[in-house]
Amino acid sequence: MSIFRVAAWLLTIGMIITLIVVGKSYLVPIFVALVLWYLVNALNDQFRHLPFVGTRLPNAVTLGMSLVFIGLALYAISDMIVNTVNGFILESGIYLPKIEAQIARAYERLGIDRTPPSVSDLELGQQVLGNFALVLAGVTSAAKGVALVLLYVLFFLVEQQTFPRKLEALGLDMRGSTRFTRTLAEINSAMRTYLGVKTVTSIATAVLSFVIFVAIGLDYALFWAFLIFLFNFVPTIGSITATALPALLALVQFDNLTPFLVVVLGVTGVQILVGNIIEPRLMGSTLNISPLVVVLTLILWSMLWGIVGMLLSVPITVAIIIICAQFEQTRPIAILLSRTGEVNTKKLKRDRHTVPTPQEEAVADPT
């Protein structure tokens, strides 16, 4: 590889990273809208198969049902978060003395002769209230962006009706058209499989965890279950964080360690059962990503786009691998990012033998 090609690659990568960072406020709503667009189409496919007077519902009706369903779900989620945060703030006077009691109990068990610090000494009350204020501000900011995201989703739904005709009008040769169509089909299949399986397994994990929370009487059980559902989309650290937060509340809420251990062991067992046994069987070979790459991309996208980047790190990486695997120049990148090193090279070789190149077409048809 020449020095000029290396410089061109470095310049291209630098420009892309700059665009991602500078255009964060514009790109994040678009990518979130893409995810919602996939969910709307997935719901639409399910609604299309619902029996209605012996016939299938019209596509326009099922699309409207999908949009209404997702809109109501977003409203219910935001309302639940606001009510939970307000409840924490109002009941902080109950939890803060319990925190002091737990600190004193820990000092006694560890045999520390010093006087245990109070909540006011540690300034935990101000920190907790400050964090809750940040959460409320974040929810308010997200609510303002929901309208823009839903507008993008509507544009995507309108565009998908005419996109096949636009693709046909591009006039690509047989080789280019086959590659482009296959790439879009693979990305679409991988995204649908990932989002569908991840949503189902996240719901299952949240429901089982909710049963555990209700059984021990943990406060705000529904909120913690939703948090587990959401954080289950974040690779590696998501399940750990979602388990630690309700466990800490159980440690503060109850006077003994039994509920805390039940939350830790119960939710961890559910995470292992669903995440390591059920989910891989449902996912199959859709996510051909190296575990190391998953962690590194998680860190990278969290630095660039925050929580949204953490949630979208895996789908974006899957799309990058599929696109890079279609071209000889970028296939090494796809191989390095993949889990096994196999990136449909057999399919590419078959296409090269079955699809004529432009030179071959010119020889076969001199006119």
TrEMBL record:
InterPro entries in alphabetical order: AI-2E-like
Localisation: Membrane
Region (Disordered): 347-367
Entry keyword set: Membrane, Transmembrane, Transmembrane helix
Protein topology in the membrane: Multi-pass membrane protein
Transmembrane segment boundaries: 6-39, 60-78, 132-158, 195-216, 222-245, 257-278, 298-325
BP-aspect Gene Ontology terms: transmembrane transport
Major site of localization recorded for this protein: membrane
One cellular component term from this protein's GO annotations in UniProt: membrane
PANTHER family linked to this entry: AI-2 TRANSPORT PROTEIN TQSA, TRANSMEMBRANE PROTEIN
Similarity annotation: Belongs to the autoinducer-2 exporter (AI-2E) (TC 2.A.86) family.
Name of this chain's protein: Putative PurR-regulated permease PerM
Organism: Neolewinella xylanilytica
